[in-house]
Amino acid sequence: LSVTSDLGLTMTASDVGSDASYSFSSVAKIQVEESYIGEQWGRDGAGQPLPGLKGKVYDYYVQSISQSVLKKRSVPYIPPGTSRTSSLGWVNEKLQGLATQGMEPALVTRDTAVPPPTENPETSPEPPSPGRKDSILRVADSPHLQLPLEGFGVLSPPESPQPGLVADASFFQTPTPTHLDLGNCYEVLCMAKAQKLGHLQEAAYKVMSDNYLQVLRTPSIYGRLNAAERELILRRRMKGKMYMATADINVQESNLHPSHLCYYDEAGDSWHHLCPVPPEVVSQGCAMCSMFNYLFVVSGCKGAGRTQTPSNRAFCYDPLTNIWREICPLNQARPRCKLVALDGHLDAIGGECLYTVERYDPRRDRWAFTAPLPHDTFAVAHTATVCDGEIYVTGGTLRRVLLRYSARSDSWRVSPAGGGDRFHLRRGTGIGVYRCGAKAKLWYPCATYATSNPSSFRCAVLGSLVHCVGRDLHLRFLADHVSPRFGTKELQPFPSPRGSLLLAVLVLPEAGMAQTRV
């Protein structure tokens, strides 16, 4: 085996009265010889002797050459008052003329003025011949050097805008007009890593983070990121303040009062409009949850009255880019199902007269059936949640049955245990909270909120706080292990609800933080 590797770099610098060319080359040769040592012992099935030892001989050779060439030539004078645009155009014309004449091109500097030539160009000092390391460092530190990206000594403008490198006072920069999107973000990231451009790396990571779902589905981007980079773009996506988001899904009066999404600000005890909900997303009996800081909605029934038909469409909303998108439809329409997120997947559980369960893989953008509910028990008006890496389903037609799902074994089982709190409405007395301990395997009351006529509500969990939001109700429950309790006062209710309220948790970016719309 013989391997030869060589590396060459040519740099041309323009000075007041001379052109200096620095070059170096490095050659590495590897020769591997495999041989058998003559000592023999043992014989194979045919009675032939087998070699006792086998070895390899390595020969490694390295060669490095550095040189510098100095050529005297006067550089035309550019008046000091010439603007940047005109001076660059003038130099480009000269460069093209030089290229047609077969001469070495002068290099363009950015935001620098070339002084007039001296009366005696021959008196300019000759720079010393740099070594390989010194020559590279000189390029990085010198303000009048530039490395062409498309070969050496060839000046041809690219057909489409591409990120380029321009030498500056002490570091390399990218031109500001460069457009960064999903089509070139990974190539720009690789270039930024090679040139150690931290600001450009952050810009590429930001595009990937703001459009995480599209990156997740693109093997040419996500498949080439290492584990640390994958965690980084997801962590950046979750950077911000966590809010409770509530969707008012109005099916009856969609024209007069369109459906919309709001979020609750605890600091000011106030609700704020986030975005409208598109008519395609609005349906009766739809389900909603959040994952990767996206809001996912599974449709219920479209239309009204006799024209109402079940729908299997699914959508997602990105709060960072404020864009709604449609994702892969379900295999079955599931009105009034429950939607939860577990281990980077979505689970659509049950529905009207359905005991099947589907799981959504965001990387493949596909829904697939998983283990159905046990004993063909269809769940309607039920509640589902995730705790300690498992899904718990109870309530509604399940009555007092608690179903427990493990994604590792893809199996359901009926279990009275499992940590969690359950809220019960008691007409005339108030709201009761029951807790189930894993060790005691028993439900027991842990808190009560006294109210004469409680209305139905939904819950959203923010840390250790559980927000209970109804049409005219907004309470906060502290799920403390020692002393669970409701807040002392009611919070601001949802403003003028017109339809069904669906709750989720989103992380919203800080004010003034620009996002990328790709």
From TrEMBL:
Record carries keyword Iron: no
UniProt cross-references to InterPro entries, sorted A to Z: Kelch-typ_b-propeller, Kelch/BTB_domain_protein, Kelch_1
Domain of life: Eukaryota
Pfam family, any one: Kelch_1
Signal peptide (UniProt feature, chain positions): none
UniProt KW keywords: Kelch repeat, Repeat
SMART domains: Kelch (SM00612)
Regions of compositional bias (Pro residues) in chain numbering: 114-130
Region of interest: Disordered: 110-136
Official protein name in the record: Kelch domain-containing protein 7A
